[in-house]
Design a protein that fits this description.
alpha/beta
């Protein structure tokens, strides 16, 4: 299924009058307060968030997976679904592939197909957290950290194969997330496991093209519950520094213990020029992978505030790679992703409204009350008219979810793919 611009423009007529009234009121108010609304709109139009190929089917838990009708059963189907999201929002202009779940049979054909939908290829993601069919060795006791050099070699080679696939697709970065760790005290020698991981990552890094970046994720626990080799941002940063200047830490919002101050982590990494990418999701207890902004919207805003500051002041930090890493097993995956894209842009827009000059002055004056007021004034602003205006100017849907339902997208996908299609790799 493909949505053309004409259908979206026609659908927008339903909301055009009410949108113009709301946008006009907000824009006038913001301009009076000194905000350049056109700059804000331009930044909203420019932001592109990659969609991971694994998020387009129904998610699941360790205990079960409830399949959703009309799931994308092939890589082309997944790219088509990203094309639908991009047509509705003009914010989802890239897909991030998971290998080996989504290996293209013909990379050139897949690249051309994606380009026809306005979709590029973001970071490629390697999978050494589960054994694949016909593997001669097992990752049961770790991959890049494994005490068995033959298992480490297998995991390293997989990453090199992923890089080769990415090169054919036009990707420029590799993301590594390791499940390596231990469930019981004494199972691992901590120093040996970390050293093995560092050596393995260095070999992978040296094999990347000169214009590629390496993103290193971290996670405090799960699937191992006693120790994780790359358990926090400091360990990730240490490994990135050991690899070289094109290796960076990747922050996943769910990969933190409850109540961790993620905005401070973001600020520190950007100050050091080592924040490479960002995975958006939300959580209540752990790595819940819930819809972005559904649990902690204020925390998301505070993180965006640090991102906005860092992008302006930390010029040594590279342009950031944005991706959604959410998965929910009871929602239509495409509606879930539309909600996440909306939440990301809402927090982005709110952070753009923070008067950084006034905030800095109040910080220097040690006026704690006014510091909070500056932030909360921006956070409490209903910025949705700005998002709708940015989408309208990009020929996207003023109301993406309403348009999605008006076009009966899910029913059309079921007609095309059947009720029992299952997303590849899941």
């Amino acid at each position: 299924m493909k949505l053309n611009v004409e259908r979206i423009v026609e659908q927008n007529q339903k909301w055009l009058d009410s949108h113009k009234a709301a946008y006009g009121f907000l824009a006038e108010k913001l301009e009076k307060n000194g905000t350049d609304v056109q700059i804000v709109l331009k930044k909203l139009e420019e932001l592109q968030v990659a969609i991971p190929s694994w998020a387009l089917g129904a998610g699941g838990t360790r205990f079960g997976r409830f399949s959703y009708h009309g799931e994308p059963a092939s890589l082309k189907d997944k790219i088509s679904d990203v094309g639908l999201l991009h047509a509705l929002t003009q914010t989802a202009g890239a897909i991030s592939l998971h290998i080996p779940w989504d290996i293209p049979e013909d990379a050139h054909e897949i690249q051309e197909f994606a380009a026809s939908l306005g979709i590029g290829f973001d970071a490629v993601n390697s999978n050494t957290f589960q054994d694949q069919p016909k593997m001669k060795k097992s990752y049961r006791f770790g991959s890049l950290c494994n005490p068995d050099p033959s298992v480490r070699d297998l995991a390293i080679q997989h990453n090199l194969d992923v890089i080769d696939i990415g090169k054919k697709l036009g990707s420029k970065s590799l993301t590594t997330w390791l499940a390596d760790g231990s469930n019981f005290p004494g199972q691992h020698n901590f120093q040996e496991a970390l050293k093995n991981t560092e050596n393995s990552l260095q070999l992978i890094y040296r094999s990347m093209p000169d214009d590629w970046k390496l993103f290193i994720e971290y996670k405090p626990y799960e699937p191992n519950f006693y120790s994780t080799v790359i358990q926090d941002w400091g360990t990730s940063l240490m490994l990135a520094n050991a690899c070289g200047n094109r290796a960076y830490t990747l922050v996943d919002l769910g990969h933190h213990l409850p109540n961790t101050n993620i905005e401070q982590i973001v600020a520190t990494l950007m100050m050091k020029g080592k924040l490479g990418g960002f995975h958006f999701n939300d959580s209540k207890y752990g790595d819940d992978d819930l819809t972005v902004g559904s649990i902690k919207p204020y925390a998301l805003f505070l993180i965006w505030n640090e991102l906005i500051y860092g992008m302006e002041h930390n010029t040594d930090n590279p342009s950031l790679a944005w991706m959604i890493d959410a998965s929910h097993n009871i929602k239509d995956p495409l509606e879930d992703l539309l909600q996440s894209l909306e939440a990301i842009q809402i927090a982005h827009a709110q952070a753009l409204l923070v008067d950084q000059k006034v905030l800095r002055e109040t910080q220097n004056q040690q006026d704690v009350v006014l510091c909070q007021e500056v932030l909360q004034d921006a956070y409490r602003t209903d910025v949705r008219p700005l998002l709708r205006e940015a989408r309208l100017r990009s020929n996207a849907a003023i109301e993406p979810i309403a348009a999605y339902r008006a076009f009966n997208v899910r029913n059309e996908l079921v007609k095309e793919r059947g009720s029992h299609s299952v997303a590849s790799g899941l």
